[in-house]
Fold:
Amino acid sequence: MISVHEAKALIANNIQPLSPVKLPLSQAHQHILAEDVFAICDIPAYEQSSMDGYAIRFAEANIALELNGEMAAGTNTQLTINAGQASRIFTGAPLPSGADTVVMQEKTEILDGKLVIHDTNLSAGLNVRNKGVEMKTGALAMRKGDYLSPAALGFLAGIGITGVSVFPMPKVSIILTGKELVQPGETLAFGQVYESNSYSLKAALNQEGINQVEIFEADDDLEVLTTILQKALATSEIILLTGGVSVGDYDFVLEASARCGIQKVFHKVKQKPGKPLFFGRLEQQYIFGLPGNPSSVLSCFYNYVLPTLAALSGKINPVKEMEAELSSAYKKSSGLTHFLKAHYHNGKVIPLGAQESFRLSTFAQANCLIMLEEETEQVNQGERVKIMLLP
Structure:
């Protein structure tokens, strides 16, 4: 067996980001830019009003002005105002030629058919968005490595960008092993359990923007598992197997992986839960054999799978590590790193009950994992411990 730190280092040394792809903006949400993006035009492309009001020459703000036409957003015909004139204008509309200032309509009145301004705070250029104030042609708009949030997509669309080069999200296959598994809603027979791992794993993947997820079911049969694993390898960069990764008579993940040409990087980690964890690769495809128990599956996912997914798609690991004050003492045996389901709030962390690997009830209440190192045997109330905040 290897340590948790060794396992994480081996994974990091065996993976590399996926090759960039070009995506339309409509499909680029939650991706990471693979190259810099530059503006293709000035934004705004013309001097623009930021108010409903009147376009004027600032030097004439103290005289009554003759009204000459109006400019609305979307107007594609230029209007000129001459000396002694003003134009009605609306938010987003181009500034008429000859105008340099917009006075808001609430600070004006019409007397004898002419515009009179009552704004003691008016200044030259007020309420005018200058050409290119948001972005100049050729300017750097976003950098390689930037995250494409909803605001980022709106910004890029607003400067005329239609597509971007990004690191793609990996395609993922989940292979559920075990003939004892039945779907929720079915009647449980003797010896059967409801399958839950696909629900938690798929939700965790979707949360990170990974939506190309295929789910397979495999009985405890070497030939069946080998065939299904080959199918998954034909479509996915990441394969997650649940169960069948230990050394029992019906645990075939290691043998099926070998039959498919998968190189074993490691098997078994000095940790609880999740000791039987397997990691292998086939060129640029990565295979995780996760234990079958639900808490083990999620603990291994957040420790090993999620950082791998982030690295493949050019992201920062969404699982954040920090220290917190322990709210109650905890004892453990040395020799294994423990990951405890816990709840963090206001600088303190509380270990939750039901820590057994088959129990998911407290994981449903947890927002972090406490990480206690191999050599640790006891931590006291008030001590600072390492925690992993879950996304």
Observations:
- The chain has a mean pLDDT of 95.
- The radius of gyration is 31 Å.
- The chain has four domains: 4-18+169-312, 21-40+143-167, 48-129, 320-389.
